[in-house]
Amino acid sequence: MSPLQTDLSIYQKFNFEKPPIGIKFLFRKPEGIERLNKNMPLCEMLKEAQERGAPFYMDKDNEDCFGKLPLGMELPIENILPYTESGEVGPKFECFRDARANRRIYEHIPRLGKGTVNYVAFSPLDKLTFEPDLMILNATVSQAEIVLRAMSYATGEIWSPKGTHVLSCAWLYVYPFKSGKVNYTITGLAFGSKARKIFQEGWMLISIPWDWIPTITNTLKEMDWVPGPFSDTKEQFLARFNRIAEEVANESQNP
Q1: How many domains does one find in the chain?
Q2: Which pLDDT band, with edges at 50, 70 and 90, does 119 fall under?
Q3: I need a surface site. Which of 188, 196, 200, 253 has the fewest CB within 10 A?
């Protein structure tokens, strides 16, 4: 794994309740990192990394849900794959009315190539020693607003979250990695993690792919986290708005 070279210390300024987690997809077993010593779904491994306080990696034998599917690993029971993708599972869990609705999502679920990822490394930010493929933030709405504004501040990039209420791990891990797009969701929306009681509801999970990490990180160092208008009263903001509108109108008349 490439050693960490990006200065990510700016994220300490947020004082996140849960630490940011760096994630790496690997073909070969990582050295110097302990293997996860228990089994859990892929979505819960994020929580494990937040609470453990030390790096670890997982392999296909650690994952006990359907996270193997988007990772390109085998399913817990390999011969269940046709049955799963036929849509027969969803109605039994009461998350889809019928199989045809369930099976449609498999046309959209992002996946890594079979056998291309054999291990996934997780590390909290303060123990991160490798350049991550993803950085996942567990944020309040106010914290998320700053991060997403930093994404758009210098680039004009639009926010375009994507997801499904099942196999949400695919959208948190695989979609940003493959697409190069920042993705986010709100805890409590995903069926499996809600049923397993993994996350407290109402947090925003923001998944930042490797190619966006430098841009967002550098912009966070540059921009004001609390713009002037956010400190205005409603009346002060309206006065500011009218003043700026007038300034722009005058400037447009004297280009």
Answers
A1: 1
A2: very high
A3: 253
Q: Which domain holds residue 167?
A: 9-223
> Residue 205 has what DSSP assignment?
E
**pLDDT value at residue 85:** 79
Tokens linked to 187? 């805890």
Cα 34 to the chain's mean position, in Å? Answer: 23
Give the angle subtended at the CA of 148 by the CAs of 162 and 242, to the nearest 5°. 120
Quickly state the pLDDT bin for 65 (edges 50, 70, 90): confident
pLDDT band of residue 78 (cuts 50, 70, 90) is low
198-210 confidence digits (pLDDT tens): 999 999 999 999 9
Query: Is 95 a domain residue?
Result: yes
> Order of strands, edge to edge, in the sheet holding 183-186?
56-58, 119-124, 21-26, 134-139, 204-209, 183-186
Task: Give me the chain's average pLDDT, please.
Answer: 93
Cα distances (Å, whole numbers) of residue 47 to 57, 74, 159, 215, 250: 14, 23, 25, 26, 53
A 10 A CB-CB count for 74 gives 14
* pLDDT tens digit sequence for 162-184: 999 999 999 999 999 999 999 99
4 assigned to some structural domain? no
- Find, among 38, 78, 43, the residue nearest to 174 by Cα: 43
- 179: in domain: yes
- Dihedral (Cα; 139, 143, 148, 149), 10-degree rounding: 180
Instruction: Report how far residue 37's alpha carbon sits from residue 31's, in angstroms, rounded to the nearest whole number.
Output: 16
Q: Is there a domain that residue 125 lies in? A: yes
Phi, psi angles (nearest 5°) of residue 132: -80, 150
Q: What is the rounded distance in angstroms from the CA atom of residue 45 to the CA atom of residue 36?
A: 9
